[in-house]
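Attaching the record inline, Q. Sequence:
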Amino acid sequence: MTSAATPAPGETSTTVRIRPDVAALPAYVPGARPDAESPVEIAKLSSNELPFPPQDAVVEAITRAATGANRYPEMTGESLTQALARRWGVESEQVVVGNGSVALIQHLLDAVCRPGDEVVIPWRSFEAYPICVAVAGARAVRIPLTPDARHDVPAMLAAVTPRTRVVMACTPNNPTGTILTACELAELVAGVSRDVVVLIDEAYLDFVTDPEAGDALTLLAGAPNLVVSRTFSKAHALAGMRVGYLVCEPGLAAAIRSVATPFGVNLPAQAAAAAALGDAELARTAERSATIAAERDRVVTALRAQGWEVPDSQGNFFWLGVGDETTALAEHFRAAGILVRPFAGEGVRISIGTTTDNERVLAAAASWLDR
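Structure, as predicted:
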């Protein structure tokens, strides 16, 4: 038996004809996971996860729901949708829940993009964006961040053409942590015609403490083309459950539901998210988020005192833009038992962990500068 030839870049080993644009897609690279055989204790700071477990009421809800796993869940998560609508003061028809916010972003793009359409995105930003755009058959138009790692709103607006279907922004931006201010957010939304979607990804909004930061939901009533994306993965400590949601005008929400996978959010995940919206659970989430934000500010201040240039982060992470030294710096942290998220040739993103984890980060960062 002869072995199959190694596929060339952009090719696959299958005999089935794959869409060329899909075959050429880079795979999404998740944050590194600890090696079970590691001789040292590992701090996993590579995926922007909360260092705290889900709250007790949430775990109890998951356990109860699991006993009914022989039955399908509500197809579109009606109960969770209604709870979210009450939480944010919108109509339930405006809320779409899904298997994480990335899946919902994909559904949105599938609903509005045709082959050859354009989607304007900031860059560097969330790595999944250009992949989602390509899967939808559209073309990502990447607008570089400003030198201080912020969105270049005028440049994003200038990039809009008759082929543009969506303008996307992430605030706080992943991986730099920088925000759109309320003024910048209003400028972006107002600067796009009503037949073009403006998608604002607010996955990390709970960690924001800057009073100048924008909140996209406050603009929703006056912008029928605005879509706001949020998640339970970060502040609610439910990354492993995969639950996110979009808020937008009812007609667009219905279109997104029409292309979504039926029963896309499993039964325990729906129960977990609903439990996380309890009054006591929301209060505890706010306390935890404040703790993480305070640690973030402490760590960033300490890094700057060491001599590092760190953008103003409002997420549960921060960015070290070290360019060509990215791989070496990531390996330096790994040798110290710390997993970070490298973006080759650009920089590393480091999540805020426990106080002990963060002290290890500061020690490793100092030793890098002293090498």
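The longest helix spans residues 279-306. DSSP finds twelve helices and twelve strands in the chain.

More tomorrow.
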